[in-house]
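Let's practice the habit of predicting before peeking. Look at the sequence and jot down your guess about where helices and strands might fall. Then scroll down.
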Amino acid sequence: MQRYIVLLLTLVAHASVAHAQFDPTKVMREAQSVAQRFPDPAVHFSTPGFRPGREDFTSHADVLAFLEALSQESPRVRIEILGLSQGGLSMPMVLLTDSGKINSRLPTVLIIGQQHGNEPAGGEAALVLAQQLANPQAGLLRRVNVLIIPRGNPDGAESFKRTTANGIDVNRDHLLLNTPESRMIALAVHRYRPQLMLDLHEFTVGGRWVEKFGGLMKYDALVQAATVGNLRSADRHPRAGPLCATYLRKPCEPWVDVLFIPHHWRH
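Done guessing? Here is the structure:
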């Protein structure tokens, strides 16, 4: 069983290959005794990466086809192409609203997946969330506008590499804006002014931990609010850390407990 830790018109595809360059044969397989401690959750999704028999993660072509179909099925879904990556792949953003357009009286949430291309869980979760909000959970859109960028690094996601095509980590480029990928995300933030942003990442379970310590991480979820020292003590936002702890951590606590998700509250 593979485990990953998750830290939440017409589309034009450019130079896309059939499948992402992920090799499932290279993934560490857990011993049966370990796998029994972390059973697969009893949930089923129909997005491309979760379809029966699938061994690879969602490809760029799959993302575009899925989003196009979703926009045709639901009037609550609109797709905006923010631009092109360094490798010529389009970066779609999904706009999910109750009326088909942004309601300025409601708060806006921006969710970004897979800024690191080799951390696919956020991108896969983003597609599931878009599908849920477009249909069974659409009632939530009466209270909030939701923007989703499933892949903040399309080239990295397609080649299963952490960085962008020129080797820059887009997750470290939101001040200098040296990559088109970070500039596209900045454009979306500037245009829609979200009150809340969720940046979805992963933290390896095996890999280096097995190599260094001969052990595995014991939890399935690593949750961190904005409590880093430079934010907590910033003159302009002295309450940012406590507010994140109050409005992110505390509401999450009962859910991870009820769902029996092994978890750790970082920092």
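How did you do? Residues 5-212 form a domain with the Aminopeptidase fold (CATH 3.40.630.10).
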